Amino acid sequence: MSIDDVLSAELLERIRGRAAGYDERNEFCHEDLDELQEAGYLRALVPTEHGGLGWELPHLVKAQRLLASYAPATSLAVNMHQIWVSVARQMVQLGHTAFEQVLSEAAQGHIFAFGISEAGNDAVLFDSVTEARVSEDGSVTFTGTKIFTTLAPVWTRLGLFGKDVEATGEDGELPLIFGFLPREATGWRTIENWDTLGMRATQSHTTELDHANVPQKRVVRKLPLGPNQDPLVFSIFSSFLTLLAAVYTGIGDRALELAAELPNQRKALSTGTTLDQDPDFRYKVAEAQLRQLALDAHLYSVASDVETGQSHGPSWFPRLVSLRTSATRTARYIVDTALSVGGGAQYHRTSELSRLYRDVLAGIHHPSDDESAHRTLAAYILGPLE
């Protein structure tokens, strides 16, 4: 099925029409998710043999970008589910069959969320402050606090990880444990604290874990502490950063549309002409278009390389963080430009550009943030800190 078959023009217009209301009420995008689920979008990346649409990553990147141009928060919310499906797809292709459950359950309608982020954990996937304890039956309990749990009101499977506090390192024990928590499990609760500047419809509440039990069959990977080359690490980073970049590229697309439309609606008293004829305005919009076209090429180049398994060796992570950084920076620049040429009316709280401005600022906080990206790039080109 094509993108237009799944994300029809009528569906996208309904989604755009609801975006302001979700934001105003600080409410999860339930209707959007229901319609996207019904359209088959949440199983888009699931291979056909597992009951999905069989899309490839560049195809989904294009779709997520399109969806974000209509409703950034809805696209970001759905993104977290799509990332887990992308991770599972990569891992299964590499022969790691424990992840097949993600593909089959996504095809059945289950919704996957990320329980990865922890306050103060700048090691991200290489360490955890969440305690994991392995039971005699092979199940694992997790105790800790996860922040930014997008899709909190609706997830049915929470992908999380923690550190085995009882691992001794003997016999090849690996302390970092990854698994999927079923919503029906005990030992967890949502702390409804998502009252934020932007991206409000994601409802990314905090999740508190208190001996939340993941059955053995849902424990999918164990890793060592510290940086490592495990395929799960690459699949998470490559899926997360590429699809995140798609969302922010979509925000830039919409802001650029508005930057082109709004000057046509404004007329200069001194000349009697619309402001789309003003040389300064034209320069600003042209510069925004220049940056967006450069990002377009960057985004699809990386997505294609991830899909085809290109071997970039140690430059892979610099390439991924560069894409994420460029996407969020470019989106912010274009939104700023649209506000500049759109006039003072766009400063009103109820304008679409005002909402886009608040939504785009969330890009500051996603991994890998600006500082982390620069550390990665400096280590690649200059070598490690001594």
Blueprint (SSEs and pairs):
Elements: H1 3-6, H2 9-25, H3 30-38, H4 57-70, H5 72-93, H6 100-108, E1 112-115, E2 131-134, E3 140-149, E4 157-164, E5 176-182, E6 188-191, E7 205-214, E8 219-223, H7 231-261, H8 279-308, H9 316-342, H10 352-360, H11 370-382
Parallel strand pairs: 1-4, 2-4
Antiparallel strand pairs: 2-3, 3-7, 4-5, 5-8, 6-7
Look at the structure and name the CATH superfamily of the largest domain.
Butyryl-CoA Dehydrogenase, subunit A, domain 3
Task: Name the structural class.
Answer: alpha+beta
**Element order, helices and strands?**
HHHHHHEEEEEEEEHHHHH
Q: Could you say what the CATH architecture of the largest domain is?
A: Up-down Bundle
Number of domains: 3
> Whole-Å distance between the termini?
52 Å
| The level-1 CATH class of the largest domain | Mainly Alpha
How helix-rich are the residues, as a percent range? 40-55%
Largest sheet: 8 strands, mixed
How much beta, percentage-wise? 5-15%
pLDDT below 50 for ≥5 consecutive residues: which ranges? none
